[in-house]
Amino acid sequence: MKNLITSQVDPIINTNTINKEINQILKESFKSRINGSFLIKIKNRVIAKFGLQLFECYPNIFNLSTVVTGNEETIEYDICRIIIGIHRHHSIFLSKEEISGNEKNETYQQQLVEETIEKMKLHQYGSTFYRKKQLLTGDEFLYFPVPYELFALCMKSIELLHSSSNDLAVHYGDIINTALSALTLMENNFFSNAYPLCRVMIELYIKTLILQKHPEAIESYLTFIGYEIEQSCCSQKYPEEFNNLYNQRKYQPSKNKVHFLHYGWLDNINAYNLQTKNRYSINGIFDYLMCETNNVQSDTLQKIKQLYKMCHGYAHGSVRHVKYPLLQYFEISMMIYYVVKNSFSKICNADTIDICNNDPNIMDILDRDFKILEEQYRNRSTENFDLYYNMH
Hints:
By secondary structure, this protein is mainly alpha-helical. The protein contains 19 helices and no strands.
C-alpha cells in the first residue's frame, strides 16, 4: 500500500506560517484603525506577558458547546479590539506626529500592554457579551476604556443584586438595566437613541437617592406608580383615590395633574418643603438633594443635572443627527459614569461588600480613565473634532 504521507511537515515551521497568516488577517481587518505592525507588536507582548492566565479569562475556548452554538471565542481578535480601543482613547485630539511618537515610545507601549491585560481580566463581565459585528459600522466605543469598564460594572452589579437583601435592590436594578441598554445602543452606534435612556436612568437614580434618604416615602412611591399604570395603560382615567390626594396636595399653586401623578409621592416626605413650581418635578428633587448633601456630592449632582438637560432634545425627537459621534461618546459615558459608579458603591455598601477586593480594582481604573475622558471633553472644539476624524 502506497504511503499517503509523502513529506514530513515541521510543526514549528507550520505554526510560524499559521501565526504569520493570522497576523496578516488581523492587520488587514483593522488597517483603518491602527498601524498594523504596532498592533501585532502589542498583541504579542500581551500574550507573552499574560501567559497561561489567558485561558483563565477566556475559558470557553475549550468548551465544545461554544463551537456547536457558533459562539466560539476568538482570543486574538478580541485582544486586538481591546488594544485599539485603549490606543484610540489615548489618541483623542492628538496629531499624527504625537500618535506616531507614542507608538515608538517604550513607556507608552508598556502602559498599553498593562491596560489591555486589565481589560482582559474583566472579560467575563465585558466583551464576552459584545456583538461580533456592529449593526451600524463606526468607532467601537464600547471597547474604549471608560465604556468597557462601565459595562463590566453593570454586569457585576447585576450579579450582586441577585443576592442582595437591600430594600432598594429593585430600584438599583432598574437603574443598572437602563444604563446597560444605553451602552448596548452605544455599541452599535445608535447614539441619539441612547440619550432618552440616559434621561430615564438619571430620573430613576435621583428618585432612588431621595427614597434611600427617606424610606418612609417608598410605599407612597409604589402607590403612585400604580396610579400611573391605571391612568396611562388601563382606564385612561385618574383613580378616585388619586384625585383626593391631588385635591389635598401640599403645594396648591401647582395645577398640573400629570406632574403630581409622577411626583405626588413627595408629599409624604415632611423634610421636602420646596414651595416652588419645581416641587413636583425631577428638578425639585435635584434642588432638594443638592441642599442636603456635602459639597462634593452636590457638585456631582450639579454635573448630572447639566447632562440631564442635554437629553431633552434627543428625548423629544428634535435632535437626531450629530456631526461628531465622539461628542456623544463623551456625554453618554459621563452620564453613565456618575450614575453607575455611585449606584455600584451603594449596592456594595448596602450589603457590606468590599469593592476594593478584586483584581483589577475596577473602581480605581475607572476613575483613572475617566479623568482622561473628562479632560478630553473640556478640550472639545470643532477644530479638535475635525482633527480626530481626519486622523481616523
